[in-house]
User: Fold these one by one.
Assistant:
Number 1:
Amino acid sequence: MQELLAITKALSDPNRVRTLLALQGGELCVCQITELFGLAPSTISKHLSVLSHAGLVLSRKTERWVYYRLPDKSAPVVIREALDWVKKSMANTDVAAADARKLKIILKTDLTEICRRQCR
Amino acid sequence: MQELLAITKALSDPNRVRTLLALQGGELCVCQITELFGLAPSTISKHLSVLSHAGLVLSRKTERWVYYRLPDKSAPVVIREALDWVKKSMANTDVAAADARKLKIILKTDLTEICRRQCR
DNA sequence: ACTATATTTCGCCAAATAGCGAAATAATGT
DNA sequence: ACATTATTTCGCTATTTGGCGAAATATAGT
C-alpha cells in the first residue's frame, strides 16, 4: 500500500509529471529541469527526491552534476506500468508539446551556461 | 493534464484506494463504506465525491440510498488502465484481504441495520 | 404536512505539501 | 588551502487536504 501511495502521491503534482515526460528523451541534470520549469533549484531538487523515493526516477552523479533518468525495463512492474500510463495519458497534450519544444532549446545550449543562470 | 491529475490525486489517499478495491465485488452504498472504514459519513461522502469527479466511480441513486460502483468497459481508457493498475498493485496485500473479510460480514448484515449504526 | 433517514454541503481545525531563500554539502578548478 | 559551482537540506510561509460535527438537502413512510 505504501509503495502504491508513494507512486500516486509523486504523480499528483503537475511539475513532477512534466519532469517524467521531459526525461523520456534521456537523462537530464537538475539545472536543466530547473531551467525548463522556471522554479527554484531547491524546489526541483525536492520534486526529484519525491520521484526518486517512489522509484519513478534513478540518478547518477558525475563531476558536479546529478543526472536523473527514467528507470529501464528491469524496474518493478508497478513502476513500469505507472510510467507507461502517464506517458500514454499525456501523449499529444499541449503541456507535453510545449515542454518538449523548450527542452530542445535547452539541450542545444551549453550545460554550464544553463547552470550559471540558475546558480548565482 | 487536469484529467490525469484528478486521477492521481484521487488515488493518493489510502481510504480512496481501499474504496476502489472494495467496489470490485459490486456496488456499495455510502453507509456500507462508512461501516467498512469506521469514518464519519461526511468524510466518506467527500472521498466518493473526489473519486467520482476523477471518473473512477459512478453512482446511482435509488430510494434513500446512493450506490457507488466501478465504471465498466465503456469508461475511457485512461480510467480503465488506472483502475487495472491499482487492482493489480494491491492484489494480495494485507490491507485488501482484511477489508475483503470485513466487507463480507457487512454484506451479510441487513442494510438498514448498517445505516442505523452510522446515522444517529 | 410532518417525521425519519441517507447523503451531501459547510465551517472549522490539524496535518501535509509546494514554493522560496539561506545555509550546508560535495565536487572541481586555481 | 581556497574559491567556485551544482545540488541538497533546512526553516519558513501560503495553500491544500483529511477529518469531524452541524446544518442543509432529498427521499420515504405515516
Number 2:
Amino acid sequence: MDSILAQWRRERPDIDPSPMAVCGEIWRAGERLRQEVLANLVQYSLDFAGFDVLLTLRRQGKGETLSPSALAKDMMLSTSAMTNRLDRLEKRGLVLRASDPLDRRGLKIALTEEGFSLANEIVGSHVRTEENMISALTEIERDQLRSLLAKIR
Amino acid sequence: MDSILAQWRRERPDIDPSPMAVCGEIWRAGERLRQEVLANLVQYSLDFAGFDVLLTLRRQGKGETLSPSALAKDMMLSTSAMTNRLDRLEKRGLVLRASDPLDRRGLKIALTEEGFSLANEIVGSHVRTEENMISALTEIERDQLRSLLAKIR
DNA sequence: AATAATTATTTCGATATCAAATTACTTTAT
DNA sequence: ATAAAGTAATTTGATATCGAAATAATTATT
C-alpha cells in the first residue's frame, strides 16, 4: 500500500493521495473479514448466498416465514437472484416454499428442521469467527472503531 | 442493525452478538465506499474491472507496461478474467496489447493516449470522492481509524 | 540436441448476478 | 362489473467471474 502511494506521489505530485490510505484500509479490512467469514461457511458447504438467507430466516424466530421478495429486499438483491438462491437451498432441503394462504401470487419461505438446526450451528461459529477477527481490540477500541466508521460518508 | 441484534438476543440469548455490531459496521462502511467509488466510475462508463486496470497501469508511469499475468496477480484475479477485462478495454481503445520483444509467449499491456488521459482524469475524481467520504474525520481520527482497522485479524 | 517441465495467454464450461420480459394474481378506479 | 394498474415470482438473455484444459513458447535437464 505504501508503495502504491509512493507511485502516485511520483506520478501525480499535484494530488494528495492520503485518502487512499484510509479508504484502502477500510477496503482491505472488509476483504479480510469477508475471507474469514467465508472460510467458516465452506465448512458447511455454504456460501454467502445461502448463509444470508438461512440466518435471515432463523433470526425471525422458529416457524416464522418471509416472502421471496421480502428476503430479496432485506439483502438488497434482485428477486431473480433470490429465486436462484432459494432453488439451491430448497434442493438441499434447507428451506421450503409454501404458498401464501392470503395471496395466491405469493410464497412463504420457511426453514426446514434441517435448515433450522444448521442455521443454529452456523450462527454460533459465525460469531466466534467475528470475535476472533476483532480479538485484538479492547472494548473501548471497539466502540471507537464503530463510531469512526459510522462517520464514513 | 440494532434491530437485527435484538432479534439475535431474543432467539439466541446464549450468544453475545456484539461482534456482529463491530463487524457489521466494517462491512457496511466498505459497502458505502464501494457505492460511492462506483458512482464516480459510471460517469466515465467504467466499472471496477476497467478502473483497476487503468489505474494500475497509470501509476506505473507514462509509457510503462505490465503483462496480463502481472496485472492479474496485482489485483488477485485469474488470468482468464484479465483476458476478458483487457478485451473490453482494448475494444474501447483504452489499452493496447503489444507483443513482448523478449518473450514471444508474452504480451505487454500499455495505455493508449486516450487511456492515459482518462486514467489521469479518473484518479483525480476518485481521490476527491474518497476525501469526501472521510471528510467528517480529523487528521487524528484518520490515523486512529487506520490503526484500529490494521488490528483486524 | 532432444525431451521434460514450466510459463503466458486464451478458450471453454459452469455458475451467479442483474435487468427486462412473462405469467399469474390482486387491488384500485371507473 | 369491468378495465387498468400494480405486485409476486419465475424465466430469459447478457455479462463477469473462476477453474480446468488447450495452445504456444521458453527454460531446464539429461
